[in-house]
Inverse folding.
């Protein structure tokens, strides 16, 4: 394996608790790239709980080339009511600029696809910013279908809180 790493081969591995700091650094690099650094609120404590707590919300993979962290993928399970199958939502796929066009993104995406298939999943979905032609071209090259008929919506912060208050339920720190 050491020879492979020296030759520039891509090594994909699951992230562990010791990787939280490097994941946060990668998140910030992605936020900067997407011009969204002002929205970055993740902390080591929040990320540790989200990925490695009692009820993990997501999973992460790290890509390494020559012993250096080259990128990451972060994903979580989904479910299709129409197909009655599970799938995976790819929240982030990020490759550091120095490692782009070297197979890192494809290796990460292949590992996420394999995770979906291992779990009986039949669908892998994600979104990309409409101006990110580098990513859009990469996804087209894989044969991914662009889902133009679906428009993503989001409630966050006060709007989410306001709608949740309409339920009449007491907020709970931990739902089971």
């Amino acid at each position: 394996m050491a020879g492979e790493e020296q030759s520039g081969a891509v090594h994909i591995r699951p992230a562990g608790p010791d990787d939280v700091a490097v994941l946060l650094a990668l998140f910030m690099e992605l936020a900067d790239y997407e011009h969204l650094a002002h929205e970055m609120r993740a902390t080591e404590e929040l990320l540790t709980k989200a990925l490695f707590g009692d009820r993990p919300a997501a999973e992460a993979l790290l890509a390494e080339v020559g012993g250096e962290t080259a990128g990451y993928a972060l994903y979580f399970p989904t479910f299709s009511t129409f197909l009655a199958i599970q799938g995976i939502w790819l929240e982030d796929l990020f490759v550091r600029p120095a490692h782009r066009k070297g197979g890192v993104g494809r290796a990460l995406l292949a590992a996420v696809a394999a995770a979906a298939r291992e779990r009986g999943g039949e669908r892998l979905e994600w979104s990309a910013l409409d101006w990110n032609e580098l990513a859009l071209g990469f996804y087209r090259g894989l044969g991914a279908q662009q889902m133009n008929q679906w428009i993503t919506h989001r409630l966050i912060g006060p709007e989410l809180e306001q709608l949740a208050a309409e339920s009449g339920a007491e907020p709970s720190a931990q739902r089971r």
In short: The domain at 2-147 is CATH 3.40.630.30 (Aminopeptidase). The chain has one domain: 2-147. The CA atoms of residues 86 and 119 lie 8 Å apart.
